[in-house]
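Researcher: Structure for this, please.
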Amino acid sequence: MHYRTTLKIRFKPFSQKTHKISSQHKKYQPVMAVFLMLVLSLFFTGCSSVSALVGGRHKHDYAQNFERIQSYNFHPVSKTLKNNSDFQFISNSGVLLSIENAMAAKKLRKERNIEPEIWVNYYFTGEHTISVGELNELFNYNLGLAWDDKYGTGQGIANSHYQFSKDTLIIDFVSREGNRLIWRGSAPTSIAMGDSLQSKQKALKEAVKVILAPFPPENNFSSLKTPVFDE
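Model: Predicted structure, token format:
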């Protein structure tokens, strides 16, 4: 009997204290929720245009010896692209300078007076999507048997249905002869229409870094199971 009485005396104050703390916690829950929302909004505002830049997408021609490449230049723009509003936006956004800086860091020089070893093309999807096949047709690319296929069987050529999402930056490297696509990198930017020009430029600059970071790819053209040409 004495034990049960003692237990009641000790348990009751503890229960009251717990109830008091719980009530205080509930009282401050709305304040904590507002504070958390404010912190998250500030975080995502600062990262709004580059939040989707995780990795990027890269493909290349396994028959290409990338170690031989020393020079590049931007491919002359076709009339079709000149009239493309998304292409005009990307051309005036500082992307070309970002590409030049990234290429210079990789010891690749820009040729101005003579034809380079490779041409560089770029494209921005803007408010639209575009498939791999449509993009290749737009630039009139040729694909080698070892495109996206280390065995050189030509199976990679058939993978043309992949859709690039909206606001995706794409950078292509093309052989000087034959307009053969040898490397492609892409990254989404999450650019919003209401973003400032400075914010858009920053997002595109970060996209260029993500895209060109893994270039050049590991040279495994010599290990091809099927003999494929190498320029």
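Researcher: Any notable elements?
Model: The longest strand covers residues 168-175. The mean pLDDT is 78.
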